[in-house]
Design goal:
150 residues, alpha+beta, 4-stranded antiparallel β-sheet, 5 helices, 4 strands, 20% strand
Length: 150
């Protein structure tokens, strides 16, 4: 009787450890997929158009822009920033240029783009010259197109 009792206990311990290990591995897999870094960015948009031709014609006087197709529309982005102070500075810049804008908040997970954006935000924060700000925006939009859209 003691021999069968020990065999039963060993089998129970082995099955318990195998099932416990399996459940633990499943939990680790689920938790790693759920936890992701969320990076909310401010996208300054000029507008949304039903065709590329309309978007290009409506913004022909705007040099620094990015036109992307999202769903069935073409969206014209003027700038992207993570810094709320820069957002205010950029909104004022476009208001002074008589360009109506809308703010859209989106998340981006591309690390290369986020690192570049952080550096560009520092540059925008430290300049007051509108031409320099527009040049910096051109780099940001080009990086967004290269790292995120393609």
């Amino acid at each position: 009787m003691t021999k069968s009792f020990f065999v039963t206990m060993i089998v129970a311990i082995l099955l318990g450890s195998i099932l416990g290990n399996f459940l633990f591995e499943q939990y680790k897999l689920e938790s790693s997929e759920v936890v992701k870094e969320v990076n909310s960015l401010y996208f300054i948009m000029e507008g949304s158009y039903s065709s590329l031709e309309q978007a290009s014609n409506a913004t022909k006087d705007i040099d620094v822009k990015l036109i992307t197709k999202e769903d069935a529309n073409y969206i014209v982005y003027l700038s992207i920033t993570k810094d709320s102070n820069n957002l205010e500075k950029l909104e004022k810049l476009y208001k002074d240029l008589n360009i109506n804008t809308t703010i859209k908040t989106m998340s981006v997970s591309n690390k290369e783009f986020l690192a570049t954006l952080e550096q560009m935000d520092l540059l925008i924060n430290n300049t007051k010259d509108n031409e320099e700000i527009l040049s910096i925006n051109e780099v940001v939009l080009a990086n967004y197109q290269e790292f995120v859209l393609e």
